[in-house]
Amino acid sequence: MAVYTKISNEDLENFLSNYRIGKLKSFQGIVEGIENTIYLLLTSSGKYILTLYEKRVREEDLPFFMNLLSSLSDQKFKCPKPIKDQKGIYINRIKGKNASLVSYIEGKSKKNLTALDCRDIGKMAANIHLLGKKIKAKPNQVSINYWKNAFNKVKNECDSIKKGLANDINISLNSLEKKWPKNLPRGIIHADIFPDNILFFSGKVSGIIDFYFSCNDFFAYDIAICLNSLCFENQSTFNVTKAKNFIKGYNSVRELNQKEKDCLPILARGAAMRFLITRVYDYLKQTNLDGAIFRTKDPIEYLKRLEFHNNVKSYEDYF
């Protein structure tokens, strides 16, 4: 989340005239992450989240995301519910950008998750996998081919971040492409369950947000993403207790099979590579954007995690 596009009170009032959510009282930008422009709105009927789609979200994919959120929320999953306008449409435009409104979920993210938090998040990840069966599949647009293409655009600049980085990424990418698994159980995954996408209220998980990387892929790949995003301390120290609790929560809803477990090390390497490359790309390509308010995340954090996964011999090393 970020603020790339600045909007005025008049812009918003014109946009909201298409909806039945009351009169605008106030709004403020939310600066977390780097994908889209996010505003928190307060109207006479309550709080809402306005998203302006800036990058990596293709226009043709927006109906998928809205239908997924609508289906999950209708099944009582704790996630934002899309708001239709008076014509029954989810997506409209503001300042020339596609935009949507969703319900506000009370709560805040927290950086330091406990092992019990990880168990609850494991349950929620498994529920997404089970509840998403009703949604028409959308391929993963941010998989190995995307990583390769993004890397090729910045590989000549990578060593400005760390000497030898381009060579390290190139070797790992070639290995991942050769060893990437096939024929694992698959379906709708969130693909971006990070601490800043998990909200807590009164000590409990109150919701999962930011489904804009959701797609059809291996369920175990979603778990591998979570091992990377939730189970490391101080960038490179893996917390086995958190991983055990996450898997315990997941297995209480949907049991991992043996093949999925055996593939976790390579999938975890792939997840680390995805975030390493996207962070390298954003670091090199976005630091000079005029007028944008965003936070660039440290690429080296995921280089260290990739190095950890490279030394893992079995899923048992995780949990």
CATH superfamily (homologous) name of the largest domain: Aminoglycoside phosphotransferase (APH), C-terminal lobe
Q: Terminal Cα separation, in Å?
A: 32 Å
pLDDT < 50 stretches: none
What is the makeup of the main sheet? 5 strands, antiparallel
Annotation keywords:
319 residues, alpha+beta, Phosphorylase Kinase, domain 1, Aminoglycoside 3'-phosphotransferase, Chain: A, domain 2, 2 domains, 9 helices, globular
Task: Report a brief summary of the structure.
The protein has 319 residues and is an alpha+beta fold. 40% of the residues lie in helices and 16% in strands. 37% of the residues are buried.
Layout of helices and strands:
Blueprint: H1 9-16, E1 24-29, E2 37-43, E3 46-52, H2 62-74, E4 91-94, E5 97-103, H3 115-131, H4 144-154, H5 165-179, E6 186-189, E7 198-201, E8 204-208, E9 215-218, H6 219-230, E10 232-233, E11 237-238, H7 240-251, H8 258-286, H9 300-310
Antiparallel strand pairs: 1-2, 2-3, 3-5, 4-5, 6-9, 7-8, 10-11
Helix pairs in contact: 3-6, 3-7, 4-5, 4-8, 5-8, 6-7, 6-8, 8-9
Give a written overview of the molecule.
The protein is 40% helix and 16% strand. It is an alpha+beta fold and 319 residues long. It has two domains: 95 residues, Phosphorylase Kinase, domain 1; 203 residues, Aminoglycoside 3'-phosphotransferase, Chain: A, domain 2 (Alpha-Beta Complex). Strands 1-2-3-5-4 form a five-stranded antiparallel β-sheet, with helices on one face. A hairpin with a 2-residue loop joins strand 4 and strand 5. Helix 4 packs parallel to helix 8 and helix 6 packs across helix 8. The chain is globular. The two termini are 32 Å apart. The model has no long low-confidence stretch (mean pLDDT 93).
